[in-house]
Every structure is written in C-alpha cells, then in structure tokens.
Design brief:
alpha/beta, 7-stranded mixed β-sheet, two-stranded parallel sheet, 11 strands, globular
C-alpha cells in the first residue's frame, strides 16, 4: 500500500489544528497513565511528602466529582480548543432557547469512538455553548473510575467533566436554582464498538436509567444528535458473534471500558494512524421535553417517556439530516 504523505507547504493554522487534536488524543489515551506514573515516581522520590499531602487532598476532595466537579472557565477557554474545533470543524446548533432556571439532561447521540463532538461542545467554549445557552453550565458525565487517577482527575474536572454515578447526576438535577445541564452519551462505551463511517445504529432501547432520573427530579429531557461523530475513525470489522467482538464484550464487562480497535490517519501522512479524519461534526440540540417530577416513577411512566424521547430523537435526526448531506432513505436504527 502506498503511503500518502502530507505536503510540506501545509499552512501554519492547519498544523496548529493537528497539534491541538494530537494533544487531545494523547489526553484521551495516555494522559491518565502518565499522571499515575508521575505520581508513583513522586512518591518514591525525595519529594515524597508532596505526594503524601496530595493523598490527603484526594481524601478530602473525594466527593467533588459527584458534587458538580470543579470547572475552570480559563481552561475551557484555552485557544487550543479553537484549533481543535477548526480541525474537523465542529459546529453547535441551537434549535430553541432553554430556560436557565431549569435543569436539563442532554441525551447525546451517537457515542462515536472518542465522543469528540461532546467534548468540544460541552467541555470547552470553542463552539460558544455559554453564549448560545446563557445561564446554563454543561457537565459531561464520565465513568467514576477516571476520577480516582491522581492529577488526571484535576484536569478533566477543569473542563466540566463529572462522575456518571447516580449520586452525581442527582446532585446536578436537584439544584433548586436550575442552570445545570448533564450531558450523557446514552449509548455508552458499548456503542463505540459499532462506531464507523455510515453507522446510524444507536443502543437506546435498554438505556432507561436517565429517563428514570429525569422523572425523579423533573428535569427537562433534550435529545442531541451529533452528525459526523461516527465518521472520524474506521474500525477493524467486529460483527456481533465474531471472536473479536466476543473478546471486546468480555473485556468491557470486566473493566467497564470498551476497547474499539480504531484507526484513521497519521500526523504526517494520511494512510494510517490514530488521528481522526477531518470530517465536519454538526451537533444539534433539540427541543426539550417537559417532564413533571415523579419521586417514585412507575415502569409505565418510564416506558412512556422513553418512547416520547425516542420519537423526538428520530424527529430531530430527520429534520436536520439534509443539512449534513445525508440522503432521504437514511434513518436511525434503535437497538
């Protein structure tokens, strides 16, 4: 196979875009391991007292990821995120105004391989979330495991990431003053195993926990569809029942983290690597579904609201798919 190298006369701005995405890929795939290694080295060095004090801080601060986190407007506004946005590029589309006195659950679809659209739109200010939705704070939910990694936890919380535990979601949705947006990649890590160009299959039929939480707290449900999320990476073929998929499912059940074998392009060539393709991402925030509070929702209530949510998600996709260049015959499939 011939390797297609990048030309030497690439404009500086595009090179900076590549660097921005490269550091994001590293943050996603390797920063946690590096932070853990740095902490271990600090613990066995002459600076071990610093590590000891940090352990004390971890104990005192252990509940923060479940209590709204510790976001930093400064970190969310770094210029590097603008280059990250322009690499694809990413665009956030608002369809209606949202009342800042209410709390919301944004159901984000699809998960994609690395949820690039969710990160760019809701963990940075590069696409103008705070300007489009004044008075609202976005919080992207992430597996609790990652908030146990020393140093790494501080970095991810600065972007607005919080634990995906029930207590964390309850905290956000129970604030009487409103203004909180909990962003949930509903398909979860398992959906990432099917994320490849052209895929329009969502794992939502058995995802009803967020529906129950919306009912318990009377939070508004908002479907969000991110066109282009599945176009960023190719994956090694892993159909259901194949040895590879069986192994991936087994590893996910043990570790709680999916391991998609993805690939796309490189930094200096376009033939292979872990850098995403330069494909546009159009993230559309739909109309909220009004949810009356029900402290003890019945299974019928959950099923009914779940059906309404899926209908609204389908409508959102159908209304905006032509803006992304999809064809009339292309529709969502729910599993």
């Amino acid at each position: 196979m011939m390797i297609r190298f990048a030309p030497l006369n690439v404009p500086l701005r595009r090179r900076l875009q590549t660097v921005a995405v490269l550091q994001w890929i590293f943050s996603f795939l390797g920063l946690a391991q590096c932070c853990l290694a740095a902490f271990v080295l600090l613990s066995v060095s002459t600076w071990w007292m610093v590590a000891l004090f940090y352990v004390g801080w971890l104990w005192l601060d252990r509940d923060t990821p479940s209590l709204g986190g510790r976001r930093s407007h400064w970190v969310r506004s770094w210029s590097i995120w603008e280059y990250f946005r322009d690499y694809f590029p990413v665009k956030l589309v608002k369809t209606v105004d949202l009342d800042p006195k209410k709390n919301y659950i944004f159901g984000f679809h699809p998960h994609g391989v690395l949820v690039a659209g969710a990160f760019c739109n809701f963990c940075t200010e590069s696409t103008g979330f705070s300007s489009l939705f004044p008075g609202l704070k976005s919080h992207l939910l992430m597996l609790p495991f990652w908030f146990r990694v020393p140093l790494f936890r501080e970095y991810i919380m600065s972007g607005g990431l919080v634990s995906s535990s029930k207590s964390s979601l309850s905290y956000l949705l129970s604030r009487p003053q409103g203004g909180n947006v909990a962003v949930i990649a509903v398909g979860g890590a398992s959906e990432s195993l099917d994320a490849r160009p052209g895929a329009l299959t969502l794992q939502v039929h058995n995802r009803k926990g967020f529906i129950k939480m919306a009912l318990k707290h009377g939070a508004q449900l908002v479907p969000v569809f991110s066109f282009g999320e599945n176009e960023l990476f190719d994956q090694i073929q892993n159909p259901t029942g194949s040895p590879l998929r069986t192994l991936q499912d087994r590893l996910q059940s043990i570790m709680g983290v999916a391991m998609p074998l993805f690939h796309a392009r490189g930094v200096f060539q376009y033939s292979f690597g872990l850098m995403p393709y330069r494909k546009p991402i159009l993230t559309v925030v739909g109309t909220p579904i009004s949810v009356p509070p029900s402290p003890n929702p019945s299974s019928e209530d959950i099923e009914s609201l779940h059906k309404v949510y899926l209908d609204r998600l389908s409508e959102l996709f159908e209304q905006h798919k032509h803006s992304y260049g999809l064809q009339e015959h292309q529709h969502l499939t729910f599993l």
